[in-house]
Design the sequence.
């Protein structure tokens, strides 16, 4: 049986982007355990904008 984990990056006020739409806080020089977390994932579902932003910063993120 598969396990479904819902992971959402959002602040307490309901936004993920900064005041000017920036995501610079998301891409830091530290891993914070996300590498280990992502290594255990079989499938990722996300919207087009999220895909495009991540693809700009990490070409190896998607394994398709």
Sequence:
């Amino acid at each position: 049986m598969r396990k479904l984990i819902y992971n959402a990056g959002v602040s307490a006020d309901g936004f993920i982007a900064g005041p000017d739409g920036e995501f610079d806080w998301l891409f830091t020089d530290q891993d914070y355990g996300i590498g280990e977390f992502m290594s255990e994932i079989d499938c990722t579902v996300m919207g087009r904008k999220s895909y495009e932003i991540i693809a700009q910063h990490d070409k190896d993120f998607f394994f398709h």
